[in-house]
Write a structure and sequence with these properties.
Length: about 300
């Protein structure tokens, strides 16, 4: 913590970024840290490869996240919630990584690529790490606390996942003590579904197959087009495969243009990170993912079934 705090003190301007297809932890940690740095009198730009997902666009400061680096002379880079620079997507090609880099993350697969590395896989989320970093270092307020709570809430699956620990709940409580309205945050994230998304979920659930200890389901591009939806609308679908009694792990396979994305989830005690590693991916023991290219969609599903059978 101390080395990272010195890093934040030392430089006057920062470029903050996170992984492609940003989730709540990426969005919350970026905005929360950006607001804290601005409070310290620093200049900040937040830049990601992909736009903010629809479910997070109801928060007031989302406009801080940009998708292009404008004329901004930054002294240092902060990478949040990303195990490696490659996870950042195409924006990484436009970032000057010869400058000092602070790598703040909670993924067990982190490559420790920073000038300073604040990597704590035991934490529920990068937002939890950022909260501990800022606590007693910057005067936090309701707005900063809300964005850090957002990431902690989403990365624990509303405190349902195995990464929820006593400390996670205590830190969430501390963030709420700044005046954050927990029900309002939850409503803005979870209660904004479109009819198309719900119909897509129904079609996805019809594809589910259950095996000895694991389940698998998929979504094709045709299914998404049918309901006027996008891959963004499939966020959180993967977790439904875990709700089945006796299932220890699940795979959700998504068809993209020219590639296949797989999201893996598991209950406590089953490691899906090692399955993702087989295909060059990674994440956590209970939540991981990977992308493959050049494979037939349905042939790959059969291949993945065999891999899951051998590893679950």
């Amino acid at each position: 913590m101390d080395k990272t705090r010195e890093f934040l003190k030392k430089y006057e301007s920062f470029l903050i970024t996170s992984h492609k297809n940003p989730d709540g932890d990426a969005i919350g940690s970026q905005i929360g840290l950006a607001l804290a740095l601005e409070k310290m009198g620093k200049d900040v730009i937040v830049v990601d490869t992909d736009p903010v997902p629809k479910r997070f666009r109801y928060f007031e400061r989302i406009d801080l996240v940009q998708n292009a680096i404008v004329d901004f002379d930054y002294q240092a880079v902060i990478v949040l919630d990303s195990s490696s620079p490659e996870r950042l997507g195409s924006i990484s090609e436009k970032i000057d990584f010869t400058k000092p880099v602070a790598n703040i993350d909670h993924h067990i697969s982190n490559k420790y690529f920073g000038t300073v590395n604040l990597v704590q896989p035991e934490r529920s989320s990068t937002c939890e790490i950022v909260y501990l970093l800022l606590k007693n270092f910057v005067e936090l307020d309701k707005e900063i606390a809300m964005y850090l709570y957002l990431g902690l809430l989403t990365d624990t699956g509303s405190f349902r996942y195995a990464n929820t620990r006593a400390e996670s709940l205590r830190h969430a409580s501390e963030l709420l003590s700044y005046g954050v309205d927990a029900s309002s945050v939850a409503e803005r994230i979870w209660f904004r579904d479109t009819p198309g998304r719900l119909k897509l979920l129904g079609s996805v659930l019809e594809t589910i197959e259950i095996f000895d200890g694991f389940s698998m389901m998929y979504v094709t591009r045709e299914m998404m087009e049918r309901y006027n939806t996008t891959e963004e609308d499939t966020e959180e679908f993967a977790s439904y495969g875990l709700t089945i009694d006796g299932v220890r792990a699940t795979a959700f396979v998504k068809e993209r243009d020219g590639e296949i994305k797989v999201s893996l989830r598991s209950k406590k005690g089953t490691d899906v990170d090692r399955i993702a590693a087989i295909y060059g991916g990674g994440g956590h023991k209970s939540a991981a993912g990977f992308t493959v290219k050049g494979k037939n969609f349905f042939s790959f599903i059969e291949e993945l079934k065999r891999v899951m059978e051998e590893n679950v």
